[in-house]
Amino acid sequence: MPVADVRLGTGEHALNVTSIGYGAMSIAGAYGRIAEDAALDLLHHVEERGVNFIDTANIYGDGVSEQVVGTFLRDRRHEFVLATKVGIEKGGGVGQRRARGDAAYIREQVDLSLQRLGTDYVDLYYLHRVDPEVPVEESAGALGELVEAGKVRAIGLSEATGEEIRRAHAEHPVTAVQSEWSIFARDVETYVLPTCAELGIGFVPYSPVGRGLITDHFTPDALGEGDGRHNFPWFQGENLAVNQNLAEQVRAEAAAVGVPAAGLALAWLFAKAAELGAVIAPIPGTRYAQHWDELQAGLGQDGAGVGLPAGTMARLDALAEQVRGERSFSPDWVSGGREGLIPRP
C-alpha cells in the first residue's frame, strides 16, 4: 500500500506529510470504547502501512487521545508529523461546549498538550474552532507566538470560513485548514477550498467517510449507547434511513470500481481536490485495522488516489443534494453555517 507525500502550506512553515493521516479522535471513545493496548496496536498498524501523519486534539476524550498518542510516539517522535488542537473548552458533551480562542487560553493549553503528548513541540497546532468573541487575528497571533517560542512548527485552523482564513493568514502564515469534507458534505467547496488553493494553504479533510456512514460496515444498529453520532442530524430519525440508502448507492459504485466503499470515498476526495487545485491530506479515523486498510485502498497504486471514471464521479457528485439533515448539530459550529451555506433549523 504505497502512500504519496504531499506538502501542506508554503515557505518556511510548510510541512511534508503522507497523503493520508490518522485521525485519533476514534481512540478516545467517540464511537465506542477501545482499550489503550488495542489503540496502540492500531497506531502501529497505521505506521506499518507507511503513514507518518497523526492528528489529535486536547478535547478528544478530555486528553485521552493525546495521552495514547504520546505513549505511541515515545520512541519514534521524530518519525511522525504530529498535529493537535486548541480552542474548544470542556463542557457537557457534544453541542454543549464552547469555542475559546483568546491568547491566554492558547498559551495555557499548549503546555498541557505537550505534557500529555510527551514532547516539547508539535508540528501543526490548530485553532479547533474560531471563537465568536475573539478576533481571529488575536488567535492566529497567539499561535504564531508559539512558533517563535519553538513549541509549534506551523499553525492551522479548523472549520474557519474563507474570510476568517484570509484574516488569520494575514496575521501569521496558515499551513493547513481542517474541515469536514466528503461525498455527503460539500459546503467547503464554495469558499473554503478556493481560498486555500489561492493562498497555498493545505487542506485536511476530517470525517471523509461521513463518520463511518460511507463504508461497507455501517448499519443503524452500529450506533450504540454513548455513540457521539446520535448528536448529528444525519443519524437521527428518518434522516438515517434516507442517508443509509444513499450510502448503499456509494457501496454499489465502489463494487463496480473494485474498491471498498471507504476507499472510494477517499479516491473521490483526491479527484475532487485535483479539480479544485487543492492539496489535501485526509485524516480518517477508525478503531479497526481492517477498516484502515479499506480506507487506504483508495490511494491506488501511486498512493495518491484511485482514478475514477467520469460517470462514477458524476453519480457520486449528485448524492450530496439528496442527503437528509445537516452535517453539524449547530450551523454556527462549522464554516458552512457561518457562510450561509447550511440552513438554520
Extract low-pLDDT stretches. Answer: none
- By CATH, the superfamily comes out as NADP-dependent oxidoreductase domain
Q: What strand order characterises the main sheet? A: 3-4-5-6-7-8-9
Number of domains: 1
CATH class category label: Alpha Beta
Order of helices and strands: EEEHEHEHEHEHEHEHHHHH
Q: Helical amount among residues, as a percent range? A: 25-40%
Share of β-strand residues: 5-15%
Mean pLDDT: 94
Q: What is the count of β-strands?
A: 9
Give the CATH architecture.
Alpha-Beta Barrel
Shape descriptor = globular
Compute the separation of the termini in Å.
43 Å
Assign the CATH topology: TIM Barrel
Number of helices: 11
What does this structure look like?
It is built from 11 helices and 9 strands. The protein has helices at residues 36-48, 64-73, 103-117, 136-148, 162-171, 192-199, 237-257, 261-276, 289-296, 310-317, 335-338; strands spanning 5-8, 15-18, 22-23, 53-55, 81-86, 122-127, 152-158, 174-180, 202-206. The protein has a 7-stranded parallel beta sheet with strand order 3-4-5-6-7-8-9, with helices on one face. A two-stranded antiparallel sheet has the order 1-2. Helix 5 (162-171) packs parallel to helix 6. It starts with a strand and ends in a 7-residue tail after the last helix.
What labels would you give this structure?
345 residues; alpha/beta; TIM Barrel; two-stranded antiparallel ribbon; 11 helices; 37% helix; 13% strand; NAD(P)_OxRdtase_dom_sf; NADP_OxRdtase_dom; Aryl-alcohol dehydrogenase-like predicted oxidoreductase
